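Re: weekly structure request thread

Next one in the queue (49 aa):
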Amino acid sequence: MSSYISYIIDGIWEAKQCILLGIILWLLWNLILFSLKKRSGEKLKKIWI
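Done, posted below.
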């Protein structure tokens, strides 16, 4: 019975790690997209000015 509980706890821990990794990757992706949009916006401003 105790091995079954530890198996469940391990599964929950793995899921938490996956969720954290997903959040970190999502934040990095948003930062990359934001910087690209900012750069392209600056290029457009330079073209218009």
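Residues 1-49 form one domain. The chain is about 95% helix and 0% strand.
Next request, please.
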